[in-house]
């Protein structure tokens, strides 16, 4: 019996994350690893993207905390930073910022799609008070392989992102 080893999904490099967010928003991006993990589900306000391979196997999760979801959505849509700050104070994203955040997460699939890696696509997002599927929660809180990143979008603000991949 032959065993087939599935190709691994890489944890994106910080430079790739910075370059992608900078290109998307047209803003300077400052980031660093070693941040606290993003809390998911419940009343965390986080936005979670689930990425799957061609066989629809869950292969990665990216979670934005509420500030990063609001700031990245606002920066992508050229919405004033004050609207993002209002969303953060309210504890949830309005539909327009949520839609823009979805687009950011959708484009972030490209971070995983490297030569010899499986092709991933954004399959679902979970935001605000939406229930988080138990399997997605389990994946999002795994200890490794993952990276927890602080990200600041110039003229908007800072938040955190967690990336977790299935080895």
Q: Could you walk me through the main structural features you see in this protein, from its secondary elements to its overall organization?
A:
This is Chemotaxis protein CheX. The model has no long low-confidence stretch (mean pLDDT 93). Strand 2 (47-52) and strand 3 form a beta hairpin. It is built from 5 helices and 6 strands. By secondary structure, it is of the alpha+beta class. Helix 2 packs antiparallel against helix 3 and helix 2 (66-76) packs across helix 4. Helix content is 32%, strand content 25%. It has helices at 14-25, 66-76, 81-90, 95-107, 134-140, and strands spanning 29-33, 47-52, 58-64, 121-127, 146-153, 157-165. A 6-stranded antiparallel β-sheet has the order 1-5-6-3-2-4, sandwiched between helices.
**Tally of helical segments:** 5
Distance between the termini: 22 Å
Low-confidence stretches: none
Described by the principal axes of the CA atoms, the overall outline is: globular
> Whole-number radius of gyration?
15 Å
Which percent range fits the helix content?
25-40%
* Widest sheet: strand ordering: 1-5-6-3-2-4
| Main sheet properties | 6 strands, antiparallel
String of helices and strands: HEEEHHHEHEE
Strand content: 25-35%
Strand elements, count: 6
Structural class: alpha+beta
Mean model confidence by pLDDT: 93
Organism: Aquipuribacter hungaricus
Protein name: Chemotaxis protein CheX
């Amino acid at each position: 019996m032959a065993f087939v080893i599935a190709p691994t999904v890489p944890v994106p490099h910080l430079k790739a994350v910075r370059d992608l967010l900078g290109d998307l928003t047209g803003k300077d991006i400052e980031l660093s690893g070693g941040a606290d993990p993003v809390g998911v589900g419940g009343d965390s306000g986080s936005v979670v993207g689930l990425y799957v391979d061609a066989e629809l196997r869950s292969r990665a999760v990216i979670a934005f905390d509420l500030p990063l979801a609001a700031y990245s959505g606002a920066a992508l849509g050229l919405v004033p930073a004050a609207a993002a700050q209002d969303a953060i104070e309210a504890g949830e994203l309005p539909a327009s910022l949520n839609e823009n955040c979805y687009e950011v997460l959708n484009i972030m699939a490209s971070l995983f799609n490297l030569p010899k890696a499986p092709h991933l696509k954004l399959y679902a997002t979970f935001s605000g008070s939406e229930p988080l599927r138990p399997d997605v929660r389990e994946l999002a809180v795994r200890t490794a392989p993952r990276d927890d990143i602080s990200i600041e979008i110039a003229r908007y603000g800072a938040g955190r992102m967690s990336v977790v991949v299935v080895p």
